[in-house]
């Protein structure tokens, strides 16, 4: 079994990631279940310039589109609402959607780069309270700007020891060592494999065991074949995960990484056991 905890749909003017791409990729590469967020929730562009309000899509609309996708494919797709803490907050619509769709929701997603907002910022606290209430994790992009430094996810994890936090990318564009070190002192702080070399994942497991990291990919940002290659045809690092890693770490640790940890951390046992 493979659970991908980091999959996207949406059109943010850089990427066009369709529901069909997700489903076809899952079938082609034997992905059993995906936790999906909608990139249309971006508040800042790739240059960290705030997107004009007239061009932004509301948090409610972003959430509802993801829910519609999951409802069509509930055996295979779970939801992680992409939040907009810079321009919006936990309002009545967000609360209602959370309450009415608990069986589909398996996390809350902060993109600290595209919201230019740190996980330990005051405006994120209401979302953390919902993660606590519904026993789901807060996941956070790390890397690319100060607000996305892994230290902020660590700070939030230390301040909320009963909530699970996932450092997506483990510091994108770095050697990942800072993120690895931060896990030492926060047992509720987890890593994910999105654009993380296999060798880094092995380091995490050697230091902390096999229970502190989950498989994620960002699929289908490199196209329907994200798991295999990029648009230039260059091999994806995920091929190491699929073809080499189990022989190195063993069957039990490999199954922890590829699905068992996700079942526990993202509270999806009713779908995958």
From TrEMBL:
Pfam families: Amidohydro_2
Domain Amidohydrolase-related: residue ranges: 3-267
GO molecular function terms noted in the UniProt entry: hydrolase activity
Top-level taxon of origin: Bacteria
InterPro entries: Amidohydro-rel (IPR006680), Metal_Hydrolase (IPR032466)
Protein name: Amidohydrolase-related domain-containing protein
Originating species: Anaerosporobacter mobilis DSM 15930
Taxonomic lineage from the root: Bacteria, Bacillati, Bacillota, Clostridia, Lachnospirales
């Amino acid at each position: 079994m493979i659970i991908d905890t980091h999959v996207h749909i949406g059109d943010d003017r850089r990427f066009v990631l369709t529901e069909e791409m997700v489903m076809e990729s899952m079938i082609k590469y034997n992905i059993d279940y995906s936790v999906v967020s909608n990139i249309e929730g971006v508040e800042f562009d790739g240059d960290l310039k705030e997107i004009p309000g007239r061009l932004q899509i509301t948090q409610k609309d972003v959430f509802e589109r993801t829910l519609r996708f999951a409802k069509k494919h509930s055996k295979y797709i779970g939801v992680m609402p992409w939040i907009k803490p810079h321009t919006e907050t936990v309002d009545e619509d967000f609360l209602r959607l959370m309450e009415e769709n608990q069986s589909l929701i398996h996390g809350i997603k902060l993109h600290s780069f595209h919201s230019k907002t740190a996980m330990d910022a005051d405006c994120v606290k209401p979302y953390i309270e919902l993660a606590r209430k519904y026993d789901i994790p807060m996941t956070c992009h790390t890397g690319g700007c100060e607000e996305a430094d892994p230290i902020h996810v660590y700070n939030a994890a230390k301040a909320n020891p009963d909530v699970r936090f996932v450092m997506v990318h483990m510091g994108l564009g770095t050697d990942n060592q800072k993120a690895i070190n931060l896990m030492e002192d926060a047992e509720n702080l987890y890593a994910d494999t999105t654009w993380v070399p296999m060798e880094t994942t092995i380091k995490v497991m050697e230091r902390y065991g096999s229970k502190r990291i989950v498989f994620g990919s960002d699929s289908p940002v490199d196209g329907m074949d994200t798991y295999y290659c990029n648009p230039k045809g260059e091999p994806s690092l995920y091929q190491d995960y699929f073809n080499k890693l189990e022989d190195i770490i063993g069957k039990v640790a490999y199954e922890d990484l590829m699905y068992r940890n996700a079942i526990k951390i993202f509270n999806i046992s009713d779908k995958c056991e």
